[in-house]
Structures are given as C-alpha cells and as structure tokens.
C-alpha cells in the first residue's frame, strides 16, 4: 500500500484558496476581494466577494475609483466580508474564522464582530495606513478578536478543469 499524499492543502491554505477563488467572481477591475467563513469544525459556512447589491446591474453602476462620490463604486459596492456573513448558512457565526484576501475595513469589521467571528486570517494589508483599517484594528483589539496575516508556504495552487 502506498502512503498518503504529503502535498495536500492545510486548512489555512484550503480556506484562503476558497476565499481567493470567490474573489475571481468579482467584477471590480481594481481590487477583487474574496472571503470564506469556516466554523470550528472546519466546515465552510459562508463565502462572498465584492460586488454590487442584488438587482443592481453590474453594467449600470460605476466601477470608477475617482470622481464625484456618486460616480464611483464606493457608495454601492458590498464588501466581500459583508457578503460572506450575509450569505452564511448560519445566523450565529460564534467562534468562526474569516479568511479574506484583504484586511477588512472598519465597516466590515463591525459586521464581523457583531456576527461573533473570533479570528480573521488575511493575506494583504495594503490599506494599513488608512484610518479605516486603523479603526478596524482598534475595534478588533478592544473586542479581543484575533487577526493574523497568512504567509503561505506555497505561492501557487493550480486548478485544472481537465481531469482524467
Ligand atoms: O473590507 C473590504 C474593503 C474593500 N473591499 C472592496 C471594496 C472595493 O470593491 C475594493 C477596494 O477597491 P479599491 O479600488 O482598492 O479602493 O475592495 C472589500 O471587499 N472589503
Ligand atoms: Zn469592508
């Protein structure tokens, strides 16, 4: 009998990969964010990505970053973390972990804390110098919500639609 595979994904790699895959659904041309909520039994209970609200056409709202506020994406886009919580199969996300491509903003952080999520695992902290992320970290620290950056031990996970 042969031994088990050794290069299988760790739980962290698996859930982060699901978060990143979800981000591929985003139509944001600049920043695609995916999020995945896993419970204490390592079951996925919610996924989401940044996109416009239901019934708000992707073709009619702007994806611009600059210009008059109402002509940008910012007032309209639902963030990945919000969608992951709202899409969740469980109302109560106590003790769940949230895997996300980008450190959550202050508004998502409120949702994460209120949902009972205990730990955030993120990849990028590219907006760490903004007041939004500073406020997020203040709230996370006060609420004893753990956050840690994910440093992958592999750079790439390949998906091949051609299976034998
Ligand atoms: O917590 C967050 C913060 C941001 N997002 C989304 C919202 C936007 O679609 C992009 C950010 O766009 P930029 O062009 O990089 O400003 O990311 C999110 O989903 N979650
Ligand atoms: Zn957000």
From TrEMBL:
UniProt keyword Zinc present: yes
Active site: 81
Keywords of this entry: Hydrolase, Metal-binding, Nucleotide biosynthesis, Zinc
GO molecular function, one term: zinc ion binding
Any Gene Ontology CC annotation: cytoplasm
Record-given protein name: dCMP deaminase family protein
Cofactor: Zn(2+)
Family, per entry: Belongs to the cytidine and deoxycytidylate deaminase family.
Keyword flag Iron-sulfur: no
Domain of life per record: Bacteria
InterPro entries attached to this UniProt entry: APOBEC/CMP_deaminase_Zn-bd, CMP_dCMP_dom, Cytidine_deaminase-like, dCMP_deaminase, dCMP_deaminase-rel, Deoxycytidylate_deaminase_dom
UniProt GO BP: nucleotide biosynthetic process; pyrimidine nucleotide metabolic process
Cited Gene3D superfamilies: Cytidine Deaminase, domain 2
């Amino acid at each position: 009998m042969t031994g088990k595979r050794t290069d299988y994904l760790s739980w962290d790699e698996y859930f982060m990969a699901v978060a990143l895959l979800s981000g591929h659904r985003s139509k944001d041309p600049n920043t695609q964010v995916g999020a995945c909520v896993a419970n204490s039994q390592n079951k996925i209970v919610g996924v989401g990505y940044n996109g416009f609200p239901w019934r708000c056409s992707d073709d009619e709202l702007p994806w611009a970053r600059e210009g008059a506020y109402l002509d940008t994406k910012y007032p309209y886009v639902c963030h990945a973390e919000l969608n992951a919580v709202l899409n969740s199969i469980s109302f109560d996300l106590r003790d769940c972990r949230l895997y996300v491509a980008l450190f959550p903003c202050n508004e998502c952080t409120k949702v994460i804390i209120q949902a009972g999520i205990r730990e955030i695992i993120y990849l990028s902290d590219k907006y760490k110098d903004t007041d939004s992320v500073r406020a997020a970290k203040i709230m996370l620290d006060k609420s004893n919500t753990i956050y840690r950056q994910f440093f992958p031990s592999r750079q790439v996970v390949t998906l091949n639609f051609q299976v034998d």
